[in-house]
Batch of 3 targets.
Target 1
Amino acid sequence: MKNKPLIGKVAIVTGAGSPTGLGRAMTLALVRAGARVAMLDINETWLEQSAKDIRKAGGDDCVLLQQCDVSDPESAQEAVSRTIAGLGGLHILINNAGILKTSERQTYTRTNFWDITPETWSNTMAVNGNGPFHMAKASVSHMLSQKWGRVIGVTTSVDTMYREGMSAYGPSKACHEAFVALMSRELENTGVTANVLIPGGTVDTNMIPSGIEHEKTTLMQPEVMQAPAVWLASEESKSTNGQRFIAYNWDESLPIKQRLEKAGAPAAWPQLGNQSINPWS
């Protein structure tokens, strides 16, 4: 069981299709840990391509492929219902699907917020901000009924959230992180937890627009997310709620307490303290 901590568990990973994506890497790690995974993506071709390698690791029935638009509440609900019917349950939700679009062009150019179109803003917010809400809302009643669940939100580094030229991606990820922090409070003592997991820097995925120059050797690889994702999805993480973890700082050589201290911090920055003045409190 130590090497297979997720035996008997069923997971959903959104944005799992890209052959070079974080979702695929985390799906592979969950399957290797014993879970069966519903892979969700809007791109069916990518799903089929990624599933071939994952099935080699976990067998033909280790994944269930579903084309899903997480920005559509009906599509999200259908995906959850199909997962429960097809895989026999639902224990883990990784909200990973996201889009990065700073302009209408495919290549990256510095784009101020007043230059992006309302469509770019709305579409980015729909996937990155609304999508996690739709998926969590569709999943949580099942998790609450069994008194066991793990919701993991993939957001981004804080500086990216307000970096110039990163509208609407940065604000949409800040929205997602605030939602995870809110979820964690409302789920406290239910057996269901909500936490954030981020890579901690630029990762070599298809999210990097053409036109940005990077030395490939300096980029993180998607596999950086694997070990912390498995731990957060496991029984061992039951006391961890409302935290954000930087995958790059996740050090498997450390005892778990030191590991959590090195990689973790509260989600959505409650360390800033109460900012509101409530005369009725």
Note: The chain is about 40% helix and 15% strand.
Target 2
Amino acid sequence: MGKGKKVDSKEVGLEIGLIIFKYFFHEEHLHYGYWTEGLPRDLAHLVQAQENYSNFLISQIPAGVTKILDVGCGVGRLASKLINLGYKVDGVLPSAILVNHARNLLGDKSHIFECTFEELRTDNRYDLILFSESFQYVNLEKALENSGKLLNEGGHLLISDFFKTEAAGESPIGGGHKLVKFYDLVSRYPLKNLKDLDITRETAPTLNLANDLLSNVGHPIWNLIINYLTSNYPYLSKFLQWKYRNKIAKINRIYFSGALNAENFATFKSYRLLLYKEAKA
């Protein structure tokens, strides 16, 4: 009998995140919030901040757009909202777990391609390709090349995601392409920049909420697990802490040191909304 397919830890993490958000917030949004002036920076208002983000993103879609490709469409919440507004929307997802959620939500209203954006091959063409917190996961060159193939003449590319700044030191927050590298690369393609909005200030407070949750919930649970293993299975505990000492140290450094905060995010990341229009000669 062959071995079963291994479960990807990222897939499990996504599913856990969906369960938590659905239970506590009755929502399945898995993206940053957009914290407008006067909106309290607390968990009670996270869903409102995330709804603000979706509304802000939609407000940036140019007039005349009818068909959209939502790259990394998550569970399909944004796609569903766009469809209800009259847009025709397809999605792209490499995650089987999220694909199932999206297909259950959208049904036959949207076609979900189960692959990476770089692997996507279709005869469909779109007025706008949307990357909402998914651009950091794609290969820059391949993504820009494929965008050109999938856009209708005069189509748009809308990117809303964070990038790495040139700040000195090591960022405790992972992810993102270098902003200067992106600017250099995109300048070589037939794309005219229409908007470049820095929304770091509006999105950064989300990190403080994540940090509070990790400090007040995640860290105590982590310590309870360690203490339980140490007390009841001392030899196993010593072996595991030796075997995975580097991973454990990394978990403590990244998640439980308090470094995942808005200040560090604003230092090492730049959250941008970028709108480009195809400008072929």
Note: Residues 1-5, 23-28 have pLDDT under 50 and may be disordered.
Target 3
Amino acid sequence: MSFQIIGDSCCDYPYLTDDYTWIKRVPLTIELGGEVYTDNAQLRCAMLVSKMAASRSAPKSACPSPGNYLEAYTCGADDIYVVTLSDKLSGSYESAVVAANMFKEAHPAKNIFVFSSKSAASGEIAVCRKILSLAEAGEPFERVVAETLDFISGIATYFILETLDVFRKNGRLSHLQSLVTGALRLKLIMGGDETGNICIRGKALSMDRAISRMAELIAERCKGRDMSETVFYITHCQCPDRARLARDKLMEKVAFKDCVLLRAGGISTIYANAGGFVLAY
């Protein structure tokens, strides 16, 4: 049985390696400064960062239409696995589900399932890699779906941003919170809860301390668990050295199998901004 993994464009790209061509990406769009950009491999994220800094308003993203997804589903594969941004963060999941129902009605012999990653960026890639490992091993469709859902229920996502400006502009952070964190130069350690919503997990007075504290929090979560077969993923926005520091700090505390560094695509860029990174496993 042939299979295809399809993701929205918050599935980020490996840093300095191939582009994960086994993922078929369906792009979101980004509106910024009166211009609309398609979030694909050709989008220059450094340009986005520059335009965001010059804009008084936050960039806005729009999810793919069901028609966009439907076109991607028509790929000839027998088993189709779709991974989207958390359904709490974007309409991408709902759009993908609508398209999946349309596709299944037209192609009843095909198998298709849409996963809300309950995460974003590196978290989506973690889900995609889980699907890939199961499908390449020849697991039947139903088992791939069940094991992936179980994986998603335990996924952990953490992120630290250099600036909270985008969160302030789009209303996810109050003006008062923004002033306090800015005045104290606090770095918030944020993450996704079990439902896929954003929460604050800790804070520190510098980026280095925040990275160390994040590693401690993850070590506490992993205590007593065998992580020797687990890979973690880090999406960074124009800060590879910072991503490597986070990787090294965490590997010192937890015996993960490996770490994969990813570069931010457009959607990850407009939320992480320059200097931000997202870690998931």
Note: Residues 3-153 form a domain with the Rossmann fold fold (CATH 3.40.50.10170).
